[in-house]
Amino acid sequence: MLGIPYTHSGALTEAITLDKTLTKQVLIHSNIPTPRYQLFRTGKELINPDLKYPLLVKPNSEGSSKGIFNENLVMDPVKLFERIEFVISQFKQEALVEEFIDGREFTVAILGNPPKVLPIVEQNYTIFPENMPHLASYEAKWLFEDQLPNPHDSYFCPAKLDANTEKLITNTCIRIWEALDIKDVARIDLRLDRNGIPNVLEVNTMPGLIPDQNVVSYFPVAARKSGLNYEEMVNTILDSAVKRYGLKQVQKSSLIREYAVVEKNSKS
Questions:
Q1: Domain 36-100 is found in CATH 3.30.1490
Q2: Where is the ATP-grasp domain (predicted)?
Q3: What φ, ψ does residue 52 adopt, rounded to 5°?
Q4: Where in the chain is the domain with CATH 3.30.470.20?
């Protein structure tokens, strides 16, 4: 609007991807699999009888697992509406209810224009306590993971995948990128259903880019595994935007220092 060049996606893409329901509607329109869902605005709506338990309750417009607690994974209507009411009252927004897919979970970092899929990260749920759901919940991300002797034990990168599954995940993520008109950088969370089909959980067009290698931040993790150090990763994001705007190359070192300061308090 003001003609100021910037990295990352445009305003419309960012607005859509900050709304989980709008994102799912775009994905469904583009024939990209995502778990079946229902949006609750008041908590008084009737549940769609076609939805199958277990169901997961999420705030519609939060990130970093905020509002997604272990007990939000529910098995019956009583608990379901209890958690819907909790989300609506505590987060002052709609509650998104979706079918829970209990399959392998991946997060996929995508970089540049044209987009390049970086090594795929898989959540390591084998280290979870027996009574802890296999879910990237608030407790898992902000409590359990931080207590591990090595937080990097919480994932595998690159994920161990057969060639067909890796290709399917990669192609799905590129289709998401195109359907949402994403630019420069994104991270996409998916789970495999019982038929091995990737279902999209979240699309994050503003992923955390923490420079500290002692902290789990999936995008830099994938970038390092691809052979890019932090500076090269940031420069790739900058170069992507510079080329889109037809600008001259910028002096990158000072920008990287500023960028690192901005990002250091954002996890995953």
A1: yes
A2: 24-239
A3: -110, 135
A4: 11-33+102-263
Phi, psi of 201 (to 5 degrees): -100, -50
11-33+102-263: CATH topology = D-amino Acid Aminotransferase; Chain A, domain 1 (3.30.470)
Residues in CB range of 258: below 8 A, 6 or more apart: none
pLDDT for 261: 38
The pLDDT, as a whole number, for residue 145 is 85
Concatenated DSSP letters for 13-30? HHHHHTSHHHHHHHHHHT
pLDDT at site 71? 97
Strand order in the sheet with 55-59: 37-40, 95-99, 55-59, 73-74
Confidence (pLDDT) at 251: 58
The pLDDT value given to residue 222: 98
pLDDT beneath 70: ranges in the chain: 1, 249-268
